[in-house]
Amino acid sequence: MSFVERLRSYLRRAAGSRVWWSSFPEVDIGVVRKHLLERLETLEEKLESGKIERLHQEWSSVLELFVHELVADHLNRFGRSVKQPLQDLVHTAVDAQLGLPLEGTLTWRLEVQQAAKRAWMKAVDEIDNQELFESLDPHQITTWPGTPIEAYAAEIRAVRVEADRRVTPTAIGRVALELTGMDLTRWLLQIEAEQSMGFRDSWRMSRDTARFLIKRPHGAIYEHDPTAPSIRTLGRLHDLGLVVMDSSRQHNWSYTVQDTAIPVLEEIAEGEETPLRVLARALLADDRNTSLASAQPTLAALFGEEAAAAGIRQARLVAHEVRNSLVPVQVALEGLFRALEPGPPEALARYRSRIDDGLDRVFKFVDETLRVLTIAAEPAEAFDVSSALGDAIDSVAVGEVAVARSIPTPSELPPMVGARSRFVLAIANLVRNALQSSPDRKASVAVAAALAGDGRSILVTVDDDGPGVPSELRESIFARGFSLRPGGTGMGLALTREVVEKELEGKITCTVSPLGGARFQITLPTTRGGTP
């Protein structure tokens, strides 16, 4: 498991986190701990007291990690197609790891034993990794041990320790949960750079370090060289896949900056006012204010997460206004060029590419801004799909308008993790379009949801009996500014696709409905980014 995958996994399982435990609420860690203690008591008759003490100590440090790794692995491999309750599966895996006899077929016993072994190794590796890093002497090791996730998350303020010792993701951590790939790497480095205490900061890369690596993409450094970056910082960049570190030799470490890392380092070094950097500064300021308010309760009314929230709301309004103003300009220009076919005057044609490139740059910047602001505006949390669908329908189907519903009860569908209000908005857009599909009569609309046969995804369909969508336009209708309805803005379906595919990592398609009109089908994975 890569560094970023382990970080996302930790943020999801952070003790007391609504995101992780509510993703599979049927697993009660307290019940698992009681089961473990009962099994250890059973083993007291067979094992020496010293062995029991060692087992108790080992399990005390890794139990929650073990449970998380086991359930995440199981759901990624089988979805929810296996009917055995997750609580029972965890208990069986604990028995397997303790070497106790298991019930069931030989094939199933072997599967559980292997799953328990994988979860145990991952959990122990994480604990050992942190202990090794904390005692790290760069002169005594020849391979990089890896950055400890829990300590790193705390150092960059991605998690907060509450008064009752629960660890929960901050807004910084919640943004990290919603980003993937190079976007997540860019976010982590922006957060580090905004907090760095200088060139030799072991936990947070400075902008000077980025400049150093751009200027010297290959080289060797000595741990105590005050003119070189910290070896721990280089090691973390190695974990992120931006730098390759070679074994130490005579107290030196050699490194090579990957070609793909240069644009990312340049962004950090130059300190450009990108949407990610602006958001990082705002959230860090709020986090500092929140910490101050916790230390001085009288300041709580003045501080908290209100500054960033207000800034985010204002920035989203501006970005939406810019985009909505540019859409008709872009459509009008495209109409002008079509009207001048077979070819516009040479002078106009010469400027078209510059006009198109300029508009594309503005749209790209606005979309990027809205994307990051949307992620920060509402924390990702587990929500009930059934009730969200009901709220979406109720928000648009008012008065005598009726929508046929075939939606399972909450207990029959696994929860989704994301921004619930955005999901409700996306479904409401589809239902509203369906109700408006037949302007001269009342449309028949049906909304249905079900768990896929393999248990890995939830299927949602919205059907109507309108004229439908021509096959050649079933992809175009999701484009920004495209509308089949006179007076339509062309933004509803574009937003719906953004929520479904970018935020929830699902898929939306348009086909023919059994009712005779259009069917919009959404497929939502029950596991995302390698974790439930």
Outline the fold blueprint.
Layout: H1 3-13, H2 18-21, H3 29-43, H4 49-78, H5 86-97, H6 106-134, H7 149-155, E1 159-161, E2 167-169, H8 171-178, H9 181-195, H10 207-215, E3 218-222, H11 231-239, E4 243-245, E5 252-257, H12 262-270, H13 275-295, H14 306-339, H15 346-377, E6 381-383, H16 385-396, E7 404-406, E8 416-418, H17 420-435, E9 445-451, E10 457-464, H18 492-503, E11 507-512, E12 518-525
Distance between the first and last residues' Cα? 15 Å
* Arrangement of strands in the largest sheet: 7-9-10-12-11
Secondary-structure element series: HHHHHHHEEHHHEHEEHHHHEHEEHEEHEE
Helix content: 40-55%
CATH top-level class of the largest domain: Alpha Beta
Quickly give the structural class.
alpha+beta
Radius of gyration (Å) = 27 Å
Overall geometric form: flat
| CATH-defined architecture of the largest domain | 2-Layer Sandwich
β-strand amount: 5-15%
